[in-house]
Amino acid sequence: MPIVDPRTGEPLTGEPATQEAPATADNSQGAELIIDVGRDNIQQILEFSMQVPVLLDCWAPWCEPCKNLMPILEKLTIEYQGAFILAKLNIDDNQEIAAQLGVRSVPDVKLISQGGLVDHFQGALPEKQIREWLERYFPAPEDAPASLEDQAAEALEAGDPTTARTLYEELVQQNPEHIPYQVALARALVAQGNAAEARTLLDNLPPEDRDAPAARGVRASIEFGEEAPSHEELAALSERDDSEAHFKRALRRVADGDYEAGLEALLGLMKRDRAYGDDAARKTLLRVFDALGADHPLTVTYRRKLFALLY
Fold it and tell me: What is the tally of structural domains in the chain?
């Protein structure tokens, strides 16, 4: 099968280009940007890498992670519009080539330029990580869409858990072994009001991930929703100024996602009545920190305020 230069549309000869080629190719040239490689054309691919970098995707038909990774690589190849081509090597059909390339497990993605190996990664990395890897070597396209991961996080932050759930479900399907996506999906489910479904998802995680900080944080969010008074109960407390009323109002704010107001109310209760509920305000502050995560700006700010109050 002849190899076509995606920038010029001319058959590749293996000789150095005699004139400067266009920097990009039209998206309609996806057929030239993505090719299958084997014994008949591997040498042409190596020669082609003298002119245009080649992303070599080593895969196998029995490899589920390979099947999840390949559509992401194809999408990014077209998006980068000729900055590199994607060559797909079925290692089952080309065992000798795979051995020469040092492929020991799949998926194995190798970046080849000037006939030599520049870098590689193994495993079905999430799209965002692949983008970051590519950006070490190629400028990101100016009109590149946000990754699904960024879109999902933005939807959740904007108060659109339904969209966030849909996107995280797609990410989990693409990357079934990437635990952070499953935890993020559980968080979107909680925001959507599906706490029971979120708890089931967390319960099915591997033990080491089930009790990790990220999963504990989502569990804490579920528990706040269960512990907080209903809005009807809250209305009945509106005239009360005792510690119990302040604590329950703080819980409701946290459960509703108004974390800053809830944290401020809990800190105020500590100043007012440290002994209430066997130090319930301080213990709840720590649980909110757990729910938000150690790097969240509110966690950083209110840990500092808690430390100042205690010491």
Answer: 3
